[in-house]
Design goal:
This protein is of the alpha/beta class and 369 residues long. The protein folds into 3 domains: 140 residues, P-loop containing nucleotide triphosphate hydrolases (Rossmann fold); 75 residues, Helicase, Ruva Protein, domain 3 (Orthogonal Bundle), CATH 1.10.8; 129 residues, Zinc Finger, Delta Prime, domain 3. 55% of the residues lie in helices and 10% in strands. The protein contains 17 helices and 8 strands. The strands form 2 sheets. It has a 6-stranded parallel β-sheet, with helices on both faces. Strands 7-8 form a two-stranded parallel sheet. It starts with 10 loop residues before the first strand and ends with a helix.
Length: 369
């Protein structure tokens, strides 16, 4: 085990490197930030386990709810120990990611007090933060006093490999070759957007098809039929992931996501807004390119970055002005249908019209592959 103090404060580590960092030594303070509850909970559990092994036997937990939270209780806890423990863990959850003015001051005090403090380990849990928050005073103070771990979501493309790794950890695997890849893709389709449910379905397979030590007749290999019979359809979709699937030309996934969003009761107007926003942005960037601006500059000026930046870079060189003009007109027509209008040559039902619009836009993505 690493001793307290082997780890220098002010570190940023990826989630995959957290365990090795902990082996080198506990930091006085950890900040976990991200929107994936399962992975954040697992990271917190790993930190707690390492802390308990090093004598941090007492634990106080605070959840910051609302602007009138009493930060004095947190500060007092950080400065006191019970008669029964000489080391403690102070946990602070801020679900909104906004501690407020008093909280900002308190967190900076906690960060300052954490430096060189061998008796208290502070664990702060936050949702995904925007760039402005991560460069703000209270977050940079926390980050500078300990170790910050950004917990990114598992994207759809990474999900089959993540499932395979989790199955492997409990002694299971899918068949080799194409059958195994088909099994993992099926599994991923059923749990997309719901990592906690994916974890539960993996555990279920461990219970249904246990691997016993020393039993040569049990290989741990799962067939497609076993996975198909066991794994529930617990996928959840969001409008912004739909947009990425459409721009990526993933037609089957787009149809599945639209069906899922409709079944979940999502508002058609929100789905239309996401599709129309992409169409308008594609048209604006294309117009800027036609005016002589380089594509990277046009993308920056239209605030297109991240995953969408890469998708736009693939689509725009191949998309014609006529295609984008037709898509813009189609988006205008579907806007009317979503609001209750009936138009010739278009389905009367909003979700059917949205599917047609999404597939028209997806064709640009398919052609750009």
């Amino acid at each position: 085990m690493g001793r307290r103090g082997d780890t220098l404060p002010g570190m940023q580590v990826a989630l995959a490197q957290l365990s090795s960092q902990l082996q080198r030594g506990l930091a006085p303070l950890y900040v976990l930030h991200g929107d994936e509850p399962l992975l954040q909970q697992e990271a917190a559990d790993v930190i707690r386990a390492q802390a308990r092994a090093q004598g941090y036997t007492e634990r106080s937990s605070f959840t910051v709810a609302g602007a009138h939270f009493d930060w004095s209780a947190v500060l007092a806890a950080g400065g006191s120990l019970s008669l029964f423990a000489d080391r403690q863990i102070i946990e602070i959850r801020i679900p909104s990611g906004k501690p407020g003015k008093d909280g900002s001051v308190a967190l900076q005090q906690l960060a300052e007090g954490a430096r060189g403090n061998d008796s208290t380990l502070t664990l702060v849990q936050l949702p995904r933060l925007d760039k402005a928050t991560k460069t703000g005073g209270w977050f940079t103070a926390l980050e500078g006093a300990g170790v910050a771990v950004q917990i990114d979501p598992i994207e759809r493309a990474q999900l089959p490999q993540w499932i395979a790794q989790r199955l492997g950890a409990q002694g299971q695997r899918v068949a080799a070759g194409e059958e195994g890849q088909r099994t993992l893709q099926f599994f991923a389709d059923r749990v997309e957007g719901n990592l906690l449910a994916a974890h539960q379905e993996i555990q279920k397979l461990g219970l249904l098809h246990p691997v016993r030590q020393g039993d040569a007749s049990v290989t741990g290999e799962l067939s497609w039929a076993q996975v198909e019979a066991a794994v529930l359809n617990v996928a959840r979709y969001d409008v912004f992931k739909l947009s990425e699937a459409v721009l990526g030309g993933q037609v089957l996934r787009v149809q599945r996501m639209l069906d899922g969003l409709e079944a979940e009761g999502e508002a058609p107007v929100l789905v239309h807004w996401a599709l129309a926003e992409d169409i308008r942005a594609l048209k604006r960037v294309k117009d800027a390119m036609n005016a002589g601006k380089p594509l990277p500059m046009a993308l920056r000026e239209n605030r297109v970055w991240g995953v969408k930046e890469r998708l736009y870079e693939r689509i725009l060189p191949r998309a014609s002005d006529m295609q984008l003009a037709r898509l813009l007109q189609a988006a205008h027509q579907v806007d009317g249908i979503v609001k209750g209008l009936k138009l010739p040559d278009w389905p009367a039902q909003p979700w059917q019209a949205l599917q047609r619009l999404a597939l028209q836009l997806a064709r640009l993505g398919t052609a750009a592959r």
